[in-house]
Design goal:
Layout (H helix, E strand, L loop, with lengths): L1 H6 L5 E6 L6 H10 L3 E4 L6 H13 L1 H6 L18 H17 L7 E6 L9 H11 L3 E7 L2 H5 L9 H21 L4 E5 H4 L7 H6 L6 H15 L5
Parallel strand pairs: 1-3, 1-4, 2-3, 4-5
Helix pairs in contact: 2-11, 3-5, 3-6, 5-6
């Protein structure tokens, strides 16, 4: 992860918000950006997915595993691939993603983004989070959820069959729960219906991020969100 460290020398942690649409995740994004040195970008149409898929080839494909460490000649059909490692390849991809998508400034302490499309490919889901944990400094994963009935009444979801909405939301949260069970120290689950009740409900997030709890900061973000951003909630 030296590539990312070189770009963001003051970076202390990487935070990604893993969620589905209309879950209240923009409010979480706003709160994270209000922290000193916070730079949490919004959605990027799941740009990380093809990068993580490519990285996974270098660490798990039969060809990569078989050829690694060999000394191939220029006449070999796989010449050069034996020197491709997931460590170097992943660092380069993470640096590119940071430089071109996240674009943090020099004073950034907390860097990351939120995305609502993580669950679109269940097999790739853990790979994407593994990639973040392997190649971004001090990664923290926030799973953001909301009451399913409320989600189903919001935005584009209400144009879909309720049973299809419920199934997709259950499947997404099952992926979250499975990953958190395997990596409990790296993950935190947040629920919109809880954290909109007031500042104290955000204390677990501050503890998870090793940040001093600031009730006034939370209160100001909640007030701004409720009076100005509610119609645009994601």
């Amino acid at each position: 992860m030296s590539g990312v460290r070189d770009l963001v020398p003051k970076l202390e942690k990487t935070v990604v918000v893993v969620t589905y649409g209309r879950s209240g995740s923009t409010l979480v994004q706003n709160l994270l950006n209000a922290l000193p040195g916070g730079c949490i970008r919004g959605e990027n149409d799941n740009l990380l997915a093809p990068l993580a898929r490519a990285w996974d080839v270098t660490r798990s494909s039969p060809h990569a595993l078989k050829l690694r460490g060999q000394a191939l000649s220029p006449s070999d059909p796989w010449y050069g691939f034996e020197e491709v490692t997931p460590e170097h390849f992943g660092d380069a991809l993470a640096r590119m993603f940071t430089e071109t998508v996240l674009r943090p400034d020099a004073d950034t302490r907390l860097m990351g983004f939120k995305e609502i499309r993580w669950h679109y490919d269940p097999l790739l889901f853990p790979v994407m989070l593994d990639f973040i944990r392997a190649h971004f400094p001090n990664p923290r994963i926030l799973f953001n959820q909301r009451d399913h009935a409320a989600v189903a009444r919001s935005g584009w979801w209400k144009t879909m069959k309720p049973e299809n909405v419920m199934r997709q939301l259950r499947q997404a949260e099952a992926l979250y729960a499975a990953y958190r069970a395997r990596n409990p120290r790296a993950c935190l689950t947040m629920t919109y219906d809880t954290y909109v009740t007031g500042p104290e409900a955000w204390r677990p997030l501050f503890e998870f991020l090793d940040e001093p709890f600031d009730a006034e900061l939370v209160r100001s973000v909640l007030a701004h969100r409720l009076t100005h951003l509610q119609p645009k909630e994601r």
